[in-house]
Amino acid sequence: MIRPFSPSDLYSILKIEQKSFPKSPYDSRTFLQLYAFCPETFLVYVGTDVDQEEQIWGYIIFLPEGRVISIAVLPTQRRKGIGRELIQKAMEISHIKRLQVEVRKSNVGAQAFYARLGFRRYSMIPNYYGDEDGLLLEWVSQA
After folding, report:
1. Average confidence (pLDDT) per 10 residues, the chain, 143 residues
2. Exposure check for the chain: N or C terminus, fewer CB within 10 A?
């Protein structure tokens, strides 16, 4: 189930963030600022564990104009379609006509993931990650 983020979700989001981006995770302050800035486009994916308890397995944050700030899925829940569902939910929001996301040039897995969802390479950003170029990928609504 995908639903809007709530501040009570913060601990779970921080856990996903740390496991997904150990070199440069966002901190609690950053997440709360993003929530304050764009609460309607900060979404979480809630799954049910073996004990039938709900847990947050992933999240997406994007700006109202369609720029993806961050998306992550708990490593134990990856390759189950959660990231795809989060992106597709963002695509379904009526005012979103395009989504843009940055990925490392070396991250061919992420590039393939986004390509399967209809994203195309839009631009390259030299040294976006400091030590590596970034690729700007874009999906445009056909509606």
Report:
1. 96 96 92 94 92 91 93 94 96 87 93 96 90 94 81
2. C
3-class DSSP assignment, residue 130: coil
Compute the distance between CA of residue 28 and CA of residue 7 in angstroms, rounded to an integer: 10
Locate 36 and state its tokens. 């304050």
Give one DSSP letter per residue of 50-114, joined into a string.
TTS-EEEEEEEEE-TTSBEEEEEE-GGGTTSSHHHHHHHHHHHSTT--EEEEEEETT-HHHHHHH
CA 75 to chain centre: 14
Q: What is the pLDDT of residue 24?
A: 86
This prediction has a pTM of 0.91
